Amino acid sequence: MPIVTLVQAINMALDEELRRDERVMILGEDVGQRGGVFLATEGLQQKYGPDRVMDTPLSEAAILGAAVGLAAHGMRPVAEIQFADYVFPGIDQLFSQAAKLRYRSGGQFTAPMVVRMPSGGGVKGGHHHSQSPEAHFAHTPGLKVVVVSTPYDAKGLLKSAIRDDDPVVFMEPKRLYRAVKEEVPSDDYLIPIGKAALRREGRDITLVSYGGPMVETLKAAEEMAVAGVEAEVIDLRTVMPWDKETVLNSVAKTGRLLVVSEAPRTASVASEVAATVSEELFDQLLAPPLRVTGFDTPYPLAQDKLYMPTVTRILNAAKRLLDY
Amino acid sequence: MVKERIAFPSFSQEPIRLIDPEGCWVAPFSHGLSAQELRHFYRDMLAARLLDEKLVVLVRTGRTSFIAPHAGHEAAQVGIAHALRKGHDWLFPYYRDLGLVLAMGVPPVEIFGQTLGNAADPAKGRQMPSHPGSRPLNIFTVCSAIASHIPPATGAAISMKLRRTHQVAVCTFGDGATSEGDWHAGVNFAAVQRAPVVFVCENNRYAISVNISKQTASENIAVKAKAYGIPGYYVDGLDVLASYFVVQYVVERARAGEGPSLVELAVHRFGPHSSADDDTRYKSREELSAERQQDPILRYQRFLEREGLWDAQWANELRLEIAKELETALQEAQKAGEPDPLQMFDDVYAARPWHLEEQRRQVAEELEA
Ligand SMILES: Cc1ncc(C[n+]2csc(CCOP(=O)(O)OP(=O)(O)O)c2C)c(N)n1
């Protein structure tokens, strides 16, 4: 089994899906000869030609809008947005067209498309190469939203997204692109959208996270273990629809919930998870659910490290829960 | 059925016109259409007008909430409809196109069902009136967001090209839509890809109250095509045969792999922007009456008279026949009743995720209580 990085796993998934299904195509800025600015589509245009791996004009509205029409007409487009921060010029296509096409037509037309985008901070990218806009998408009925954190998941989830009959926003934390490596089978496998992964079992506290901060969350859990605290760690993987069952089962056992995300706190996915757990498990909780998140500021450059959830911040929040 | 590929000049100074206001055929070629075909255009225009009148009545009598009247656009809309291969080509219409979708063959009962937002609507009453769509006829369901359907039309056309389906996508919009970023994005990408798509502007010179002079500094809409490297055609959209022949020309051009075009059909909007608008706030009485003097149906009637194909008795019978058809369809639509309230939770996704199941259960319990 090859040992690959997250971005290589994305490339494998795309390659396999392009080979498997003629309707699958890629479109985006610099995805062709250049192979994408992060090389996620490296070598694919050479293999499948300029029609199936298509360089587009510099227009997110054109990329996402054309993807809607391609999908409605029967293709399976995978659109690449160069950075999640640049999805906004195309947001009307995603929100008004893709998300609502099935609904507004009463199921007559659909937009089975994938919108891949490198997201998140930690790469000294300033506020326009660092954002985590998943809450916007999760707040838009009709979209599914995946945020990956491991190469193995990235491949299996991207394949599921491409085969899904609804539009899927597929977020790839760019700081993990080359930071994590693992064995990824070169054969076909799928990971279902909407299922979380239990990364670590424990009975004292539940840590829920997804995407980039999974790294810090797992490190914090290890440090807790050294101190004799057994943390259960859940990687949501899909934030819309998120896996409530897995989270509730865990918190029912531990009585304590800490949600970790690098997105701004207010009206976030983290808030949604915390609110749901409060509503449904109120009488089993040993402490109020807490959130460690990014801040409600634009993503800063100079304070890049200060902004992101750190192991220390996670440990401090966990301590508050355990001492409550 | 028609002379193949009559060539029309792009970027003309004057609008392309085949029938003048007096009803004279002024083109340097013969139309080559049979009496039956010529009368068919008339029938469809009349049906479009009668539909419009009926919808306005439905609003005034409180039976529906909204309508975007298309009176004044009939020649343009019927011309477009006749230029497409129905059920094969794709249409990406906008909200003022009920006359167009009627001429495309959308059953009137569906149009009324959509207008009433009830169970006769194939889209299950999800959108406000004037938002039709039809899967069997490849009519992409209208979206309110102006110009948001332009890039999807381009995308569908790219798919048609890649898969060699010999289809064409025709996308319609108003003059205001050409100011949107999505319009630029869609036209530009289509031109780069030489996708088989035709962009048709039904230019009534108003976006609600905003006159075209505040919308664009271009001399007309058609010239905008130049910047994208595609031909633009400036056409008298009150002339049904000019609309038809030019749109057909560019549709077949697109089908032949020669890429997209932009067509501007210059029309009038006889009514207010919508039933919620009062056009006397921004159009003078003189302007309104001058526009109504140029009725596209009357012009075509004069033409048919000259061809010996129109007489009052025939026209009256036709009017009665259409009115009856529409009334029957309306009655049928009214009988359909409300859509199932729990359909609110369908079609968000292919299957309902847990959170929609929960929310649906909550509403179901409320309804039972
Ligand atoms: C993106 C967006 N902005 C504003 C509106 C509100 N609105 C609805 S119709 C309209 C005018 C459109 O005019 P035009 O494109 O010329 O078409 P017409 O109505 O004249 O046929 C406006 C501003 C909208 N529906 N979508």
UniProtKB/TrEMBL annotation, chain A:
Domain annotation Transketolase-like pyrimidine-binding: ranges: 4-179
Origin: domain of life: Bacteria
Cofactor (UniProt): thiamine diphosphate
EC number: 1.2.4.4
UniProt-listed InterPro entries: THDP-binding, Transketo_C/PFOR_II, Transketolase-like_Pyr-bd, Transketolase_C
Keyword Oxidoreductase tagged: yes
Subunit (UniProt): Heterotetramer of two alpha and two beta chains. Directly associated with ODBA in the E1 complex.
Name the record gives this protein: 2-oxoisovalerate dehydrogenase subunit beta
Species for this entry: Meiothermus luteus
Native organism taxonomy: Bacteria, Thermotogati, Deinococcota, Deinococci, Thermales
Automatic annotation (TrEMBL), chain B:
Keyword Oxidoreductase: yes
Keywords: Oxidoreductase, Thiamine pyrophosphate
A GO BP annotation: branched-chain amino acid catabolic process
EC number(s) recorded for this UniProt protein: 1.2.4.4
Gene3D superfamilies: 3.40.50.970
GO molecular function: branched-chain 2-oxo acid dehydrogenase activity
Co-factor requirement: thiamine diphosphate
Broad enzyme group: oxidoreductase
Domain Dehydrogenase E1 component: 43-341
Catalytic activity: N(6)-[(R)-lipoyl]-L-lysyl-[protein] + 3-methyl-2-oxobutanoate + H(+) = N(6)-[(R)-S(8)-2-methylpropanoyldihydrolipoyl]-L-lysyl-[protein] + CO2
Family as reported in the entry's similarity comment: Belongs to the BCKDHA family.
Known role: The branched-chain alpha-keto dehydrogenase complex catalyzes the overall conversion of alpha-keto acids to acyl-CoA and CO(2). It contains multiple copies of three enzymatic components: branched-chain alpha-keto acid decarboxylase (E1), lipoamide acyltransferase (E2) and lipoamide dehydrogenase (E3).
PANTHER family: 2-OXOISOVALERATE DEHYDROGENASE SUBUNIT ALPHA, MITOCHONDRIAL
Protein name, as recorded: 2-oxoisovalerate dehydrogenase subunit alpha
Organism, as annotated: Meiothermus luteus
Classification of source organism: Bacteria, Thermotogati, Deinococcota, Deinococci, Thermales
